[in-house]
Amino acid sequence: MPELPEVETIRRDLEAAVAGQRLNAIEVCEPRLLQNCTLSELQRHLQGQRLRAMERRGKFLIFNFGQRLAVVHLRMSGWFSLEPGTHTRMVMRFERQAVYFDDVRRFGTLHLVPNQGRQDHPPLRGLGLEPLGAEFTFERFGALFEFPREVKRLLLDQGKLVGVGNIYACEALHQAKVHPQTPACRIGLRKLRALHQAVKDILQRAIDAHGSTLGDAVGDYRTLDGAQGGFQDCFAVYGRAGRPCLACGTSIRRSVVAQRSTFHCPRCQRR
DNA sequence: AGTATAACCTGTCTGC
DNA sequence: TGCAGACAGGTTATAC
After folding, report:
1. What's the CA gap between A116 and A96, in Å, rounded?
2. pLDDT level of residue A96 (50, 70, 90 thresholds)
3. Catalytic residue among A59, A93, A149, A222
4. What is the pLDDT of residue A219?
């Protein structure tokens, strides 16, 4: 479920909790987690190494151990905790603190990747623009809009732009007053500038609120210490079908775009 | 090259 | 109370 703001929140929390510490042991009890190595290979390369930094690329969480990286994707229900949970799939025991990877739906992935040339190895290969990085200029963003794909589909394409998922795509499109099904190449300069700003703005505001927790069901996103995020209280459209648009009062509409639930205001976001 | 569909899993919620 | 069906923040293989 996590998108960029949730992953970034976890990154910061993990950095504070375990960066700089040596990894004493790593235990994996869900074989599907490991994508490109065996558990013994993982242990051979990482155990005894110091965690140099916690990094993030799009929705990937990167444990930087110097020569090697453990690259984790949380997919739908993964999260990290300082306590063992009901669906713990991996434990990383650092010198002074253990961290637990919990993942109800077992979709989460871990790749062991060489740090040198990391961008040439899956899963970091072929990723798009980092929306909170210096590279996210209006020119480079605008260059993605040359084709007639539906704009929401484009925003969700991790090969074009990383980190934006279903929630924040809906929210950014509403803030910029763009209909989710608008062909990308038919968005005018004014709206395109508004959308560029909205993507940055929504993601930053969501990070400031420590991400979004939709409910209290098992597998819902939590921060490292188990707290809920806060940005769900700021949603303008996501999950608000039938309720009034905060800008104009019109009933928010739910539809399906790119096989995903989509929410928009039919008045603020005209085709 | 695009788009749709099913699949990967488990859990929750809704309606009958 | 039970039970079938829909739905869920993500991605990918496969088939048009």
Report:
1. 28
2. very high
3. A59
4. 84
Which bases of strand C have any atom within 7 Å of the beta carbon of a protein residue?
Answer: 7-12
* Section A55-82 average pLDDT: 97
Helix (H, G, I), strand (E, B) or coil at A81: strand
* Chain B bases closer than 7 angstroms to a protein Cβ: 2-6, 8-13
pLDDT number for residue A23: 98
Residues A24, A96: Cα–Cα separation, whole Å: 10
d(CA A80, CA A102): 6
Query: Nearest-CA neighbor of A101 among A70, A79, A75, A73?
Result: A79
Compute the residue count for chain A.
271
A123 is a catalytic site residue: no
Which residue has tokens 């260059």? A143
What pLDDT is stored for residue A244 in this prediction?
96
Residues 161-220 of A, Cβ under 7 A from nucleic strand B = 215, 217-219
At A19 the pLDDT is: 98
